[in-house]
User: Fold these one by one.
Assistant:
Number 1:
Amino acid sequence: MSPPSRNGATADSRSAFHWLKLVFVRLGVLPFLLIVALVTFTLASDNFLTVSNLTNVVRQSVYLMIVALGQMLALLTGGFDLSVGTIVAITSVVGAMAMAAAATAMPDTVWLAIALGCLAGVLAGTSVGLLNGIGVSVFGVSPFIMTLGISSVGFGAGLYITGGVPVYGMPIEFGDIFGFGTLFGIPVPIYFAVGLVVLVYLLVNGTRLGRYFYAVGGNVKAARLSGINTRLTLFVTYVLCAFLAAVSGMLLTARLDTGEANVGASLPLESIAACVIAGVSLRGGVGRVENVVLGALFIVLVQNGMNLARIGSYLQMVVLGGLLILAVIADQIRLRYIAAMND
Amino acid sequence: MSPPSRNGATADSRSAFHWLKLVFVRLGVLPFLLIVALVTFTLASDNFLTVSNLTNVVRQSVYLMIVALGQMLALLTGGFDLSVGTIVAITSVVGAMAMAAAATAMPDTVWLAIALGCLAGVLAGTSVGLLNGIGVSVFGVSPFIMTLGISSVGFGAGLYITGGVPVYGMPIEFGDIFGFGTLFGIPVPIYFAVGLVVLVYLLVNGTRLGRYFYAVGGNVKAARLSGINTRLTLFVTYVLCAFLAAVSGMLLTARLDTGEANVGASLPLESIAACVIAGVSLRGGVGRVENVVLGALFIVLVQNGMNLARIGSYLQMVVLGGLLILAVIADQIRLRYIAAMND
Amino acid sequence: AWYPYEVESWNPPFDMASPREKLSYVPLEKASKPWEICVSFPHMKDAYWLAVDYGVAEEAKDLGVKMQLVEAGGYTELEKQISQIEDCVAAGANAVIIGAISFDGLNNLVHEVRSKDIPVIDVINGMSSPELSAKSLVSFGEMGAKTGEFLAKMHPAGSDPVKVGWFPGPAGAGWVEAGNTGFLEAVKGSAVEVVETKYGDTGKEAQSALIEDTLGAYPDLDYIAGTAVTAEAAIPILRSRGLTDQIKVLSYYYTPGVDQGIRRGQILAAPTDSPVIQGRIAVDQAVRILEGQDFAKHVGPALFVVSQDNIADFDPGSTLAPDGFSPVFRVE
Amino acid sequence: MNSDDKGRGASGSESATLLSVRGLTKRYPNALALADVDFDLRAGEVHVLFGENGAGKSTLISILAGANHPTAGEILFRGEHVRLESVHDARRRGISAVFQEFSLVPQMTVAENLFLGAELTRGGFLDKRALRRNAEEIIARLGFPLKPGQTVLHLTRAEQQMVEIAKAFRSNLSVLILDEPTASLTDRETEQLFKLIEQVKADGVGIIYITHRLQEIRRIGDRITVLRDGRYVATKDARTVSEGELVNLMTGRVISEIFPTIRTERGPEVLRIEGLTTARGSPVEASIKVHAGEVVGLAGLIGSGKSEIMRAAFGLETVTAGRITLKGEDVTGLSPRRMMRRGMFYIPPDRRDEGLVMIRSCRENMSLPSLDQPPFSLGRFAINRRGEARRANELAERMNLQPRRIERSVDHFSGGNQQKVLLAKSLTRAVDVYAFDEPTVGVDVATRASIYGFIRDLCEAGAAVVLISSDLPEILHLTHRAYVFYRGRVQAELAGDEITEENLLRHFFEREAA
Ligand SMILES: Nc1ncnc2c1ncn2[C@@H]1O[C@H](COP(=O)(O)OP(=O)(O)OP(=O)(O)O)[C@@H](O)[C@H]1O
Ligand SMILES: Nc1ncnc2c1ncn2[C@@H]1O[C@H](COP(=O)(O)OP(=O)(O)OP(=O)(O)O)[C@@H](O)[C@H]1O
Ligand SMILES: [Mg+2]
Ligand SMILES: [Mg+2]
């Protein structure tokens, strides 16, 4: 790109504009939206720009963020996972039941009970992903339908197990630590989120498998002709996505202190929205982990800000929908800039 | 294909099989599923195979069917419409309010009030489609996000208008005729559905615009280079889809006798499911009206049959999800046969 | 046995403003024949409706009638509820008990069903149709009001003002709007100030986020009042913030979580409308109508507030399904 | 790479058989794509596969590359029976292929594509630096004008073709399969490729080469095997066999003249482009004009802007400066639809990407541009299904579509036949200016003759034809006038006898020489 010229104010402002445009093209619209949101809500509410509230926002966004990471993998390969909500619910129910049972059976070994419960929950959730993976990769069912169908099946099963009643009886330590605990002043769930973000980042950007997600999503046929085991890649995608959703489910269970079959209903669409706002393409092959993290943060931040600014819930729906569309329009414009710059 | 041979039972059964396979390839899995469902439910419940119940099923399926027709158009062009539920709700609310207002203003001209109300409702619903169309065709927003965003905006707006309270005060004739009326023993809504099915069939199969839906969904670039106004085509698609949803919304309002902001939430996914079961491709460019009609019928029929067979609703969720997946797996097999038979 | 149970009866019926009298409700011993009764619920996803399910299923067993339960899957599924009831009737139901999704939206259906001479009983939620055969319900407005009164009594006008965050439930649902109105009416004129009304889905995670954000906006809150889910979600949040002593929690209906919360001293109080009894009475009414017996046209259990003071005497059998009860969709 | 230039040394019968195939059969349920084919490949030879469109060439090589599985027959690799399970499997054995249809991931960069499926890793993680370095090395060795960091999405078809070729050259090669690699390349890149082929040949690599260009066979071929209707016909020595004989073997008949002579009665000017510059920066201030009744050629290297000028005229590019006049009317910036209505038709070079709706039938594809006109239309909005089917059948006949199944979806046809469907689209409506962008990509000799035939017919009927081609002989033999593009500018205008290979080539490179 041309070096910024150095004569006078116009040139200065022009170069500032140019610089902004560059940031826009590199990072997308999200940073701007985040800044606008921060400024707006800071003006609208005194309680918004406080350490405790922002920590709160980050902590609230943990669950969506982890699920969105998994969703991103599915989107990268050109699919969807509409069953993430069900996976969260099943994990929560199974994990809570197992933990409660273990805690009753051996009241002295709380930690073992917690470990067993988490294991059971995550296994149950991940096994839903196993089904998705088999359907998509072996039977070639379109991910939309496969995960939609499985989500209906899983939801029915979850309700069948619990009858819609929350599952109580988990050791109090579980919620106290994994739901509400803090370490060096930072809530424990945030550590999990950071850890998983780093792992997924490394996976996606640093490994062959990560590359294959993009390749399969970009052009399955080409991927296959390049000697990639596309079916295995797809299978792994859905299992990983389910695993992430399951971890999120266990963390949420700790936060809620009960196992619930009724959680997560809005997660599928919300996680897709977080990804798409972050520039992940629904056609597959395009998307970045860092942006997805920002996307999830942004959605939760806006909800929090609107709550603090005392915006009615009807209006909140309107604003959120509008923002979603706006973000995508901006991304469209960005793509045009890119095409114009042509690398 | 090869003429059936004529020696002995094996050949006969083979030719029967061959014939079945041909039917399968031509018509898809739906006719088979419908037959299986009919037989199963007839055995499971005495009340299933009665004229009144089957009429009932057809009438119940009218709303889903009309919405699915619109959804099919969106799918054909390679998009989605996740806002059909909101469109139905907005139509219902606005239509009911307008009709009630008109009926109060001029209590003597009931018909005029009904006509005005319907017009207002359908216009309101269709204008949501206008927004979708503009977003998708002018701004190039992906249909998934555009319609998801609009559905959130619209739902919020609908609730805002009504405050969440149903709208009453429509002339009683409206519900009596368009919701519950019969003509020659057949419920009035069915006539609407049949009319719209015929219209959409003609549109899709007999007109230029119909052909353009397929072309745009199959390959936008090729369509553009063939002199098709692809943007206009996309725009019209979403407007038409919204129009159909709006008509369905008005019919539903007649059935409910109140304007409700709380209807239609499950319609987006259900209508997509109806289409996909019917072999409409989510990648665009493939799908047939007749099958979509069967798809909508099938979904409602199975729900009805399970209700009559007194299957618990948790199990119903499991069965419906499973059937969805099954239908798509079968379609996958069919595609392989087609590739084999080769025209 | 659960009966006799103290209920209120409205006369003339179907008008909540009518004068009411106290009755001791006693159901039939046995039905004369195994009637087929269809029950329709908005959903079966929470403990409240599970309790109603428990009530209708137990009463059907006690009376020796058949029961078939359908559920629409949520408050946005009015069409589905209508279809399900139609299917039920087609399957040969002798009577229909409806927990309605919409106050007005089912009137046509009621008309259709009644025209086939099938009794229709309105349970829990309320419908506006005049053609209903009977009602077994209380007004959710009164549930809200009871909660509000409880608060207002503790903080009458003139005492130190207190701040309440109010979480009535999902926007637009009939019972939510009713509860909201009742609550706000009841606290009017007292020292109770509702500083925030936050609608939201009754999922626990949604309510959790609402509570957290409200705590952010009003660090000096005194009460959290709202749905049972809100109350349950509030407990761990307050505990983790060390606010348990500062902020008290109220629910405006009763669930197992609320029960446990009150017993443990984490929730201050909640009114109960005895949903199990409402379910039982609805079935009894249906059978009485079918058998041409006398029946109370419009009854509902008397509301009372369960608080930490009286919980010891409270029998949850009228309000909650027992532990380990799993939903019953069919009683033969 | 030790390029000890010993020429064609290693070729000849004395060297070992690398790969051989016995009785190979591939049956698609209703089509026999390959029937009992024998074929063998020696180390260090270029073995050309030749045959009509749909003869089974691509099917054969896709089996050899592991992308497809035979119904019957056996494959021997270095004397051993092998089952090639997947592309990956084949590549592990050193069999590498460039397929007719590209296998690139558009969102990835050139470098990433080059190593797709064989990423270099260190300690489990991608070694991005090594990847880029190796990509640069390969590109440099090939001498292609590619940048490793470019996104494939933004490349032209020709550039993509180069990436595709580079991909095949990356690993330990023993068999290299090239399916029409030069179909979109100009002579310069073709030469580059040939040099490379010479190099690997010298290393003892066996090369299977599919082409429809006769001059290439002579240029690099050692042996040539002809297929017809999925059957083996003959194997010949490429240097001695005559063109006539080859064509005869391929089609079973004799084609006297591939290039027809096109008479011209130069009519009025119908298209004039003045000082055209597009947003993309190519072409720059280009001006051309086209008269009725003549064939105008546009030639130039890859990326010279020869396509874009016509794309811009057809409304596919954003024009930033200049004027386009069609039949005296200013049509600058009009959409393709308007341009088509006003009498221009552009046939794109990439049938898969922009040309055809692959999942729809031939009939629908052919009629798509002209549904607003009889015999396709019925009234203002409706379609005349019968008229459509009749016309589509006529066109299939005229284009010699194989098999003649107009209801079959396009993606079930062989590459050349897809091209025929694409060209048939232009015959559905009468227009004044036809622009054909690389119309004969992947088309066999006989069909090419017939395509040239219909270009002649169009021209002689008074239409203006713009022929954009990277295939020099087409420009030489068919055009009455030719423009040579260089870096987006019109470098030269040649007419009549001036259009010679020497003249054209001089202008291709002129600036660089200067
Ligand atoms: N997927 C498929 N299903 C059915 N038939 C097919 C399929 N792919 C190819 N064929 C048929 O197999 C035959 C051989 O096709 P192939 O692609 O090998 O031809 P080709 O010699 O490469 O032709 P071209 O020069 O046009 O590329 C053709 O008749 C084609 O119609
Ligand atoms: N879709 C595209 N995106 C970005 N740049 C493009 C695109 N298409 C073409 N270009 C660039 O525009 C320039 C001119 O392209 P054009 O297609 O006119 O070249 P050409 O001379 O026809 O070459 P070719 O033989 O490759 O068709 C090239 O430098 C090319 O890189
Ligand atoms: Mg080929
Ligand atoms: Mg070109």
Number 2:
Amino acid sequence: MKLLFIMVSNPYSNDFNSLVKFAEASLSRGHETNIFFMGNGLYSIVREEIKALAEKGAKIYYCAHNAEQRKIKPESWAESSSMYGLSKLIGEVDKVLIFD
Amino acid sequence: MKLLFIMVSNPYSNDFNSLVKFAEASLSRGHETNIFFMGNGLYSIVREEIKALAEKGAKIYYCAHNAEQRKIKPESWAESSSMYGLSKLIGEVDKVLIFD
Amino acid sequence: MVDTVWIIKRPADFPEADMLEENDMLILIQDAVLRVPYFDNWLAVEEDVKARNIKLPEDKLISYEDVIDIIEKAEKVIVW
Amino acid sequence: MVDTVWIIKRPADFPEADMLEENDMLILIQDAVLRVPYFDNWLAVEEDVKARNIKLPEDKLISYEDVIDIIEKAEKVIVW
Amino acid sequence: MAKKKLTVVIRSNPFSWKTFEALRQAVGSAMNHEVSVIFMRDAVYSLTDWNPKLIGIEPFDKSISALGMMDAKVYVEEEALRERGINIKDWGIDINIEPKDEICEIIKSSEVVLTW
Amino acid sequence: MAKKKLTVVIRSNPFSWKTFEALRQAVGSAMNHEVSVIFMRDAVYSLTDWNPKLIGIEPFDKSISALGMMDAKVYVEEEALRERGINIKDWGIDINIEPKDEICEIIKSSEVVLTW
């Protein structure tokens, strides 16, 4: 299946751990795994665990507006997107989990 | 008097607004105003409002360990410090307010 | 067959009773493992339970992979 | 003369009754302005009250500068 | 891309940036999906006549207007308003005050539910 | 620099990075001040035999040991333990289980109180 995780939570929260564990489990089951970072979730995009998920095949997106607002410059393996991009992703996947 | 504000709260929280308003009020009353950023509070050190407080005379400190952990590089008007530095500050001021 | 999988994160912050259907399933993660729900159909993520040193019946514990499998077969999922 | 100034941030998250002394003062900021305490000696920051469109008696409203003045004269301050 | 019945549920953190972000998400989603936005529990305070700028938060009036223009539906929990003794302001669009059991039905009939 | 009676009160967010940071602050402060650390309400879970690494959090055992070596005092709210039916683990230092009214006295007699 195609899964989308939306990460909005604060940095260094329990949600970060859950996101990483869920995404790893999704990848290990061979599912298409997308993660979208927005709001305060953006702060977590710079963590090593996210880079590792990207290397294992997770597709990483982020809200460019929130990144700019927070002065965060994601690396090139993360794709700049928007609320409209998120909406299209929601239309393409089977299930959505939001961590907020 | 000498006031110390410790900022630990999450970014884009109500505590950020309270911190800024309290610090402005403290400066307007002519008090020595110190702000120490640690933990998730570090994320707020890059906001314009904090720079403005520094320009008005607030002394800005941060926990270097937390900054490095979060990949945040504060500007030069902020002074790198530690938990020991915080402890010494607490010994030098009259009152301490923590926002967590 | 599960209709809605509810992922519960906070202790006792369960969905209102009106929202739950017979074939729904509650899955406890994070600090939600501290309180058992008044609804038979629940499971908890073992890692989150063990991390907090909470004792729950072994047959209620599942892995993150198991949760993904349950989500795949369910009609929908709501992180509550 | 105020002994301890308690800065309250969350609705109804007041200090335990045992902690409060007669000369203490509760100051409500942020969402704490949504609930009035069962303790006479309280004030609320006007900006936080007005921002939330809450009606409180005018004589209970103070500015951030006023809070700083109260803290200066008090024995100590605790952000609760 | 499939058009879905999508519901954004806002439950807590009134007077915060969270509501602003949730509504931005709802507006973005309303371009492709059939969107409902539900304010329940403490989040109902977000629809009163409050003043975000006073506490450093960006107002979300434009998002509410946009939801109206894109035919998204906005619902508020009736019980939550009553328990708090508050009224919502006129946001210039239809806001449906519904009892909790009706709110539950909307959530149950959605394909995608995003909670805030 | 004045040596002060300083109390760090940890009330919520057990199983989190917050407790780790609060204890780091307590250890740093214990070098110059007379430090008490109080665990009350849900924070008492932090002193049980839990396993932070399983959920991506750094253990704070070293901070607790350091507090012991620097003669800082650690207190736990007795009622909070009882209500939750839990026991604290042996952290290798004296941890004082005290009733709520005793905890209140410690807070009242402090010069600086840092709440978490």
